Amino acid sequence: MSDVLAPTAHALLVRLADEQRTARTPSLVGGVVRDGVLLWSGGRGKVDGAEPDSGTQYRIGSISKTFTAVLVARLRDEGKLDFADPLDRHVPGTTLGDRTIGQLLAHTSGVQAETSGPWWERTPGGAWDTLAGALSPALHRGGELHHYSNLGYAVLGEVISRLRGASWFDALQGEILRPLGLTRTSFSPEAPHALGYAVHPWADVVLEEPFHDAGAMAPAGQLWSTVVDLARWAAFIGGDTGEVLSADTLTELREPNTVERSDTWVSGYGLGLQVLHVGGRTFVGHGGSMPGFLAGVYVDVADSTAGVCAANTTSGVNPVRLGTDLVSILAEHEPRVPAEWAPDPSVPASVLELVGPWYWGPTPFALHAKADGWLDLTPLTERGRASRFRPTGTDTWQGLDGYYLGETLRVVRLADGSVSHLDLASFVFTRSPYDPDAPVPGGVEGWR
Which residues are in the DUF7586 domain (predicted)? Predict the structure, then answer.
């Protein structure tokens, strides 16, 4: 399908075809999403003798973790748990009882990456009791560093099951899949679906990979899905959550909790979501890998654009590179037409007296009015902290990002009702640098 211009569709198909050929994958599908709409999808190779399309299922591996994280976040929002809760509060008796729910979500719990014993991805999964009985003590101190853990998400699946009184997948179906219309995202493969293959490294022959129910490990990598459903999930990650999750909680999940240890960070992890810097863009999403399958969902939240892809090969395809390249191709061939400017009647008159220049000490800032009484604080020099604020009451706003995330901006007025200064997390902003008539902490003696 294609709702893009013919040259754009051609460029996207060329990129997909190049990946399928150079990676030597039996089949490959991909799609591009903009503003929540799947604008283009394509397929290369063969599944059951035919070219795969946006409705062909592939196993999506660790993209399953993003669904698990949303289920946990819903429990938090309902007050059934807190991200700071130790595991023992909800699943007592394991060797990991002091690790928190938040640490498990962010892969900072220090829990081992894989199960003890045979590789879980290529062997039949067992029940929770069997898995719990084989748990080893954590490898690292909780919160010390990022250590990716499939096992940690199996643990979170058990938390969900106990608090919901249902299996992880039953909770997933009722709370996410059905409400969002993800009718082709399933626990086991449903036709039409691809078979998983390994491709010989030195010859053009393939070997079929085994498929097993992952049992208690399912929350870490069980699911199967399609380009159509992954596109809807990309829209969810981008902000179109319906009534499944609040916008504030989604923002919380997307915020990096930890980043790679490198000179310049290019990869981090929020609560169930990877955060990547690629080609000057920030992408949020997740990759997936299971024997015979690779997949990816990568969303540029700022541009409301996403790339999704899936392949039936154990190695070779690079989902991050392919998914983000599809986004870049769309942006290059069909850049957005800037929205028309128009007066905004939703800006309250009471906000207009606040806009304009403000100073924190000698540092200049500009306060801009946005729709519905929101404010945007921007430094006018290279140094300074920017943030957006939304109204929370009379003369109060809450910070939405950056240094002031969650902090309160308050207008302080004189007895006659006029504005004296702004108080932002104890920082005093005045209309002139170090205004002597404002209560500047420490006082001022005047310029000389």
Answer: 347-431
pLDDT of residue 119: 66
What residues does each domain of the chain span? 6-333, 349-430
Q: Which residues contact 132 (CB under 8 A, 6 or more apart)?
A: 91, 93, 94, 158
User: What is the token pair recorded at 121?
Assistant: 């991805």
150-164 vs 64-77: helix crossing angle, rounded to 10 = 40
In this predicted structure, the answer to whether residue 351 has a pLDDT above a threshold of 80 is yes
Output the pTM of the full model. 0.89
Separation CA 214–CA 295 (nearest Å): 18
Identify the burial level of 114 via C-beta atoms within 10 angstroms of its C-beta, where 0-12 means exposed, 13-18 middle and 19 or more buried.
middle
Reported as a single tens digit per residue, the pLDDT across 4-50 is 999 999 999 999 999 999 999 999 999 999 999 999 999 999 999 99
The amino acid that residue 263 corresponds to is D
- Tell me how far the alpha carbon of residue 213 is from its chain's centroid: 26
401-426 confidence digits (pLDDT tens): 889 989 999 999 999 999 999 999 99
What superfamily does domain 6-333 belong to in CATH? DD-peptidase/beta-lactamase superfamily (3.40.710.10)
Q: Mean pLDDT throughout 279-292? A: 95
